[in-house]
Write a structure and sequence with these properties.
The structure holds 2 protein chains of 2 kinds. By secondary structure, chain A is an alpha/beta fold. In chain A, β4, α10 and β5 form a beta-alpha-beta unit. In chain A, α6 packs antiparallel against α7. Chain B is an alpha/beta fold. Chain B has a single domain, classed as Transcription Regulator spoIIAA. Helix content of chain B is 52%, strand content 17%. Chain B has a 5-stranded mixed β-sheet, with helices on both faces. In chain B, α1 runs parallel beside α2. At the A-B interface, α8 and α9 of A face α3 of B.
Chain lengths: 302, 130
């Protein structure tokens, strides 16, 4: 401590001195990390394997990535700029996310590197405790920022991919099809969440308008489960369609869904339901005044 | 703004042209109910195509019109509710229960014709029995 206060006589006022001091220390630190690059990087890769992180990657791959992360890491420490590291983190995430690498693994390896480097600093400076203290003062904030940058980059990339996939699912989710003049069918497949229910309703209402539909058959054969929320969304869809003059027939309620709906007491009395899609379309045709007959039945008349 | 009410055969057509105040709506209700009797109308069509908002008062007034007109012998149909409006209405729980709705004026007229036909059929049934 005594040496330290001798170096910097007036600590509060000496902010520029301190940064300069930090810069010098960081330079020294970087030189040390460069010198021991091979050994530290190997140590790091070893620790990654031992901790069973990045199990989706081969050892060679881990070593290659470890090398580039190491270099980027040291460079970020040296320059104090994080753009290159950020770009690298994004690039790395793009490559490893499809292979199933988890967030905790990425955070884990970055923290491991931090640990490996800190240990090597301990080993180097353990005789000069004061120097070690100052080196750590300089190292810690920079290392934290690096760890932060990499972890945030990874999470952001993951979120971007998730958003992209959600968008894709949404786009191919629900077609509204016209099967006959004024008759639409809406086959729903998969899980209905509030957002999808909303989008579905909007789509259906617009389709009713543009196709001048009078009857809509909503087929939920492909819906595995239904809770009161989803049921209420369905009721809302039916009501909104009615406001546009459309009659809705719901088809394909599975035994399980029928059971749940009755058990949780959702009021579906306002809703016309028919067993299967075929029955629903027949009912709709009846409402529209169509009758489908085999040609033989028409033949005797001629 | 006063809503013009047109007479078309046995039907009255009220075509709302712009957003209405509560007073306008009440005025529309009174005018329609009065004219149902004056013209011996069988049906009333209220066209709301121009409305992009429908609050609870508007919905209640439309429902009142339908119920009052029915008491005076006319069937009412609300036509032209926009998809967005319909969606907002069900979210607010305003569903116009017991009131007929149709896509547009043409559909509304077809609906009223259907109701008239049914009435005639039923009427004939009574005559037969008598």
């Amino acid at each position: 401590m005594a040496t330290r206060s001798k170096d910097r006589p007036s600590p509060p006022a000496g902010f520029p001195t301190q940064t300069q001091d930090t810069a010098t220390l960081l330079r020294e630190l970087v030189a040390h990390l460069r010198q021991n690059r091979t050994q530290l990087r190997e140590e790091w890769a070893r620790r990654i394997t031992r901790a069973q992180l990045l199990t989706a990657m081969t050892e060679a791959e881990i070593f290659a990535e470890a090398t580039s992360v190491y270099d980027n890491y040291v460079e970020a420490l040296e320059t104090g700029t994080f753009e290159a590291l950020q770009a690298y983190a994004r690039n790395l995430s793009e490559r490893i996310i499809p292979r199933g690498v988890e967030t905790h693994e990425v955070v884990g390896i970055v923290l491991l590197l931090r640990d490996v480097l800190a240990r090597s600093l301990f080993a180097k400076y353990h005789e000069d405790f004061d120097k070690l203290n100052r080196i750590l003062d300089a190292y810690e904030p920079a290392a934290n920022r690096v760890a932060n940058t990499v972890a945030v980059g990874f999470v952001q990339e993951r979120e971007r991919i998730i958003r992209q996939q959600q968008e894709a699912i949404r786009e191919l989710s629900t077609p509204v099809l016209q099967v006959r003049e004024r008759l639409l069918i809406l086959p729903i497949i998969g899980v209905i969440d509030p957002q999808r229910a909303r989008q579905l309703t909007e789509q259906l209402l617009r389709a009713i308008r543009t196709n001048r539909a009078k009857v809509v058959v909503i087929d939920i054969t492909g819906v595995a489960a239904m809770d009161s929320n989803v049921a209420n969304h369905l009721v809302q869809t039916v009501e909104a369609s009615r406001l546009l003059g459309g009659t809705v027939i719901v088809t394909g309620l599975s035994p399980e869904i029928a059971q749940t709906l009755v058990t949780i007491g959702v009021d579906l009395s306002e809703m016309a339901t028919v067993g299967d899609l075929q029955g629903g379309i027949e009912e709709a045709e009846r409402l529209l005044g169509y009758k489908v007959v085999p040609l033989e039945e028409l033949a005797p008349k001629a | 703004m006063e809503v013009p009410i047109l007479k078309q055969g046995h039907y009255l057509i009220a075509s709302i042209q712009s957003a209405l105040t509560d007073a306008d709506l009440s005025q529309l209700r009174e005018a329609l109910i009065e004219r149902v009797g004056r013209f011996r109308a069988r049906g009333v069509i209220v066209d709301v195509t121009a409305l992009d908002v429908m609050d609870s008062f508007a919905v209640r007034t439309l429902r009142d019109i339908a119920h009052m007109a029915r008491l005076r012998g006319a069937e009412t149909v609300i036509v032209g509710i926009q998809p967005e409006v319909a969606f907002a209405m069900v979210q607010l729980g305003l569903t116009l229960k017991g009131v007929a709705t149709a896509l547009d004026l043409e559909e509304g007229l077809a609906f009223l014709d259907g109701v008239a036909r049914e009435r005639i059929e039923r009427g004939q049934g009574r005559v037969d029995r008598a």
